[in-house]
From TrEMBL, chains A, B:
Residues 25-90, 128-432 form the Non-reducing end beta-L-arabinofuranosidase-like GH127 catalytic domain. This is DUF1680 family protein. GO terms for biological process: carbohydrate metabolic process. Residues 93-124 are annotated as: Disordered. It comes from Nonomuraea rubra.
């Protein structure tokens, strides 16, 4: 098993938790998504990126002459993110090929070649494509280490237009791909390219230079972690510190905040501006904070994270409510229909929260990660893995203007001219195993629940679960040291009524002395400390069942409405399940009797819908007139009914055509 | 009194109503706005337009050489709209100078020079500025009649980039200014320029050519009405007919609808795309429909207007909910905080509705005009007349991102780089008199209530009122023919409890046989037919008092909330009146006891606020966390209270600094 943590603080870093030595998802909810990612999305992504001209740009740069650059200035980053995804994916396949410790019963073997011919890049094809692309990247690099095809092909002076050029943004993604290649494959080919570029930056980047789009900060920190080269961390520190000094030129009608350059991070009290940039920068700043033991910076980031969660986060975990500039709105400005919720922002949010979790060990960070993964990252990719959302609306109404090019009205797309999101999901899915668990001197902490194995500090845990469809999670100790250690299990904040049972000694069920009877408190970690033996078994029941969720009064767009959630999943009403009525008209009965439903047509059989009693508002003829009326007049909404409402997980929406959809539903 | 109707269908046009021969606002609510427009806004606008380089462009074009063009491609239109405003304003001043028929007691004389030195362009200054600008426009016109300074200065081929160049848009505004000059001043200098340009269009415009921004259609129709030159109407007909054939190239990520080129007008069932373009085109199409007696086209426009009112109109009358492309959203997509509600769209809506009112005589069109004038046009200009809103948000929340450049977060602006809105308000205010009333063979129809005089078909009415602050409108017959005629008074749809009284024969009060006792039905015209005598007096009481307004269920963003209205005015809660609490937290008591309040600090004394009983939602410490919570838990919102709520007219907001504001308030 390679040491393949996606984030790996240095031994001296000021962190509370450290990534588990290894964790592996085997099937289940996320395993299925990883399989689709490997079999469909990654091969398709390679093709789309090739079609976009991004490989051609590298080829042209490798030839050394100038020439036409195709696509966006940040086209290189699509290649790098795809390479990162392939590296993690090949690393997981390699583990399988080498055999794993977890025993034969741990799930189906990983077999990239098992369905040969299904994908060009699968298995050997994937390895070949990876190695060719890595060689191409290496060839495109200038002898002096510089690499950015748009700059090279257009003949612009390097680092002369950093506000717009995305040179450092691309460099950062190269570094992350290189670290993945090194950790997942033990291959330092790309790492050599990345360090040569990083050395060029250290040497030649003008003093005070910042990229318009943060990303390189966290990449430099990780490259430092991988190589030990302190100048990379120093450069990241400098960039995190300089940010917010209004050093960058203004863009369009925007102020400096759009480029994260209005308020220094150490002074900021909230997140603002472009949501993806904010997340990437915050992730890098967290890396800097822990590597330099900068408690003030970490406190500032904690403050910003909390404010973001309290005032600028959609129920799904999605971020960004302003289309203009792809940015955060004001506090509580979380309109569902105009939600931007860029898929990349959700990926960035997971990255930041993971780093905060490592730094602090606080469950709230893992709670947001789980919410975001299920409800803000995953909606960005179709169930088939071949169509995408860049923007994730939380409401689409009937009769949406067919000429309105906002994403929700158009449905999922095959690809995007700005294709940052699809490969971002690819790399996150292919490295998702690394976010499951951590280890520290005390023991093992399990943050996300998926079937598979977790290895940390001499412990090997086997996890069995059909979570999130069911709430039952079985954890079996397969290897353990002789000394006592603590198993910490995250109990999500929503998991009222969660319980734990344990069977020790491989047989009799005995009360766990660390458990208060059957229930455990939500919103933290339930800890069991003991001398463990092989075969010890802990059963967690997260009490997954449908529930109604309301918003605080300041969240005016949700007033008078509720959302349906079930476990970590946010649900929605979709038109496909409601023939004969329009989703816009549906409302819940005051006593809606939420319960799990039978599988719905067109979605995989394992998807558990939630059914409820509802009605449809009636539109009488006079409703066709001015839609405002004197209140208090005896014209309360009339209803047709009853209507059986079917809620489906929001991540699964828009897989059966695009139509009206809402996550908020009025009560009566 | 010049024959100065702003819209004047030809005698043979298929209209139901015809503009009154003359109407004149004397003081009162709108008279005050006109005074500020004349004394402050128009002079200031002339300066701002000069500073923008628009006059310099004309000067450069007049010199005949190419050269730098300053500002936007449509900069010429700012000059033309300003000239139109000045023409109407000078026409009104000229009436005063010549003396008027209404008697000395009809209001204060119009005296542009009365406060000499206050404005450079006032009185004689205004006349001089007008004549200089007209001469400059004439000089800038090419010998062959072509005129568009951007095209002339950049050397681009005329009509070669109509999708973007705004050549015809500018030409249309020139024509409207020229018609105003002719009608208001009897001056045909600009009219000669306009007809030479129109002739150039008729001769040289490529077949099928359309401007990306409709506007010229209504202008060509009016130029035809003014000159009788049928080719101008024919060109307008052709443009209205060709529209919707996807003839224009696409723009950015938009479909053809953004340029009103997706669905032919005769087939369209709703309005879509760029809201200002939609309104201007619809106005021109209505002109075409009545001048050609095209009942099918009028029916299509009626259908589109009704759908717009039913599904795409804010409570204020504002139009356009999508920032991206300044366009209409889907039906019921009317989010207050992201309202675009461009001031120009409101001006265009008034222009369209007026044309529909002339065509059909239906009160609903006048109802929307009144709503829009008070609540969507007027908010676009400060009470002092010197600061502007291009975009009109209907909600601003506490803690708005200071780096968010959307208008509401920035407050009113001195001027705009795209300065279409301020001069649009100027020309509408300076011609507002023309929208008050119409005449037909039956008599006189009064649509808007303002103190002043109305002349139509041998009738001279004097109107006295402090509407909209009070609901009482006195109409006195000052001149009348001997034969019977009908006085038709619009009773707004909101005016439940309106009543009419009459005193005939100049003395005794007698029951009016045309009135059912004291009350009249809202939402139409109350008609009184008789042989009138001088001194006959009709008193209308529009029952202006505060009321609560709710939205239909589909309008989800207003669920659980109400708005306060009073007469034609939409009210809002503004932070300035609520020290110690935040507007975002305010809610109305279930029994709020709405009543008129005393004048509020910082607004003119005549502004009637509405006060009510309310409370403030309490934000406890746990509200600082994730803003979503399981519903049904015993954590209903807690309140502080009582809080005295003060609602002020929305048009008057943002005159005391910018802060939180809302037109929708939750009930409890």
């Amino acid at each position: 098993m390679s040491d393949d943590a996606v984030v790996r603080p240095r031994p001296e870093a000021a962190v509370t938790l450290r990534p588990a030595a290894g964790a592996r998802i085997e099937g289940g909810f996320w395993g299925d998504r990883q399989r689709v990612n490997r079999d469909v999305t990654i091969p398709l992504g390679g093709e789309r990126i090739r079609e976009s001209g991004a490989f051609a740009n590298l080829e042209a740069a490798a030839r050394g002459a100038g020439g036409e650059h195709r696509g966006k200035v940040f086209a290189d980053s699509d290649v790098y993110k795809w390479l990162e995804a392939v590296a993690w994916e090949r690393g997981r396949a390699g583990d399988d090929e080498r055999g794993r410790t977890g025993g034969d019963d741990l799930g189906r073997p990983y077999a990239g070649d098992g369905e040969g011919g299904r994908s060009q890049a699968g298995g050997d094809g994937l390895a070949r494509a990876y190695e060719e692309a890595v060689a191409l990247v290496a060839a495109a690099q200038r002898p002096d280490g510089y690499l950015h095809t748009h700059t090279q092909l257009t003949g612009r002076e390097p680092y002369s237009d950093l506000a717009s050029s995305h040179e450092l943004y691309c460099a950062g993604h190269l570094m992350q791909a290189a670290v993945a290649g090194s950790r997942a494959l033990g291959d330092d080919t790309l790492l050599r390219v990345a360090t040569r570029l990083a050395d060029h930056l250290v040497k030649d980047l003008p003093a005070g230079a910042l990229d318009g789009h943060p990303q390189i900060e966290t990449a430099l920190a990780e490259l430092y972690r991988e190589t030990g080269a302190r100048p990379y961390l120093d450069l990241a520190i400098r960039m995190v510190t300089d940010r917010g000094g209004e050093r960058l030129p203004l863009k369009g009608h925007h102020g400096p905040g759009i480029r994260q350059d209005r308020v220094p991070l150490r002074e900021a009290t909230t997140v603002e501006g472009h949501a993806v940039r904010a997340m990437y920068l915050a992730a890098g700043a967290t890396d800097v904070a822990v590597e330099t033991a900068d408690a003030d910076l970490l406190a500032a980031l904690t403050r910003q994270w909390r404010d973001m969660v309290a005032t600028k986060t959609y129920l799904t975990g999605g971020l960004g409510s302003v289309w203009y500039g792809e940015q955060f709105g004001g506090p509580h400005e979380l309109t569902p229909e105009t939600a931007y919720c860029e898929t990349c922002a959700a990926v960035g949010s997971v990255q930041w929260s993971w780093r905060m979790l490592l730094a602090t060990g606080e469950a709230a960070f893992a709670d947001l990660m789980e919410r975001t993964l299920h409800n803000a990252v995953l909606p960005g990719i179709s169930l088939g893995g071949d169509r995408f959302f860049y923007v994730n609306a939380l409401r689409v109404r009937a009769g949406a203007n067919p000429d309105d090019r906002r994403a929700a009205a158009r449905g999922r797309q095959d690809w995007y001219g700005t294709a940052c999101c699809p490969p971002n999901v690819m790399r996150l899915l292919s490295s998702l195993d690394h976010y499951l668990a951590t280890g520290d001197d005390e023991g093992v902490q399990v943050h996300l629940y998926a079937p598979g194995t977790i290895r940390a500090g001499g412990v090997l845990l086997e996890v069995e679960t059909d979570y999130p469809w069911g709430g039952r999670v079985e954890l079996v100790v397969r290897e353990t040291p002789d000394h006592p250690w603590t198993l910490a299990l995250r109990i999500p904040a929503w998991a009222d009524g969660a319980g734990v049972e344990a069977r020790f000694g491989g047989g009799d069920q005995r009360a766990d002395p660390g458990v208060d009877g059957r229930t455990v408190a939500p919103g933290g970690y339930h800890r069991v400390r003991r001398v463990w033996r092989r075969g010890d078994r802990v059963t967690l029941d997260l009490a997954v069942r449908p529930r109604l969720t309301a918003a605080v009064p300041r969240l005016d767009v949700a007033r008078g409405q509720v959302a349906v959630e079930r476990g970590p999943l946010v649900y929605c009403l979709e038109q496909a399940d409601h023939p004969g009525v329009i989703v816009d008209d549906l409302c819940l009965d005051t006593n809606p009797g939420l319960r799990d439903g039978s599988p719905v047509t067109g979605l995989p059989a394992e998807v558990v819908p939630v059914v409820a009693r509802g009605r449809a508002h009636v539109h009488r003829a006079d409703d066709a007139g001015f839609p405002y009326r004197t209140a208090g007049a005896p014209r309360e909404p009339e209803h047709e009914g009853p209507v059986a409402l079917t809620f489906v997980p929001y991540y699964a929406w828009a897989n059966r055509g695009t139509g009206p959809m809402t996550i908020w539903t009025p009560m009566h």
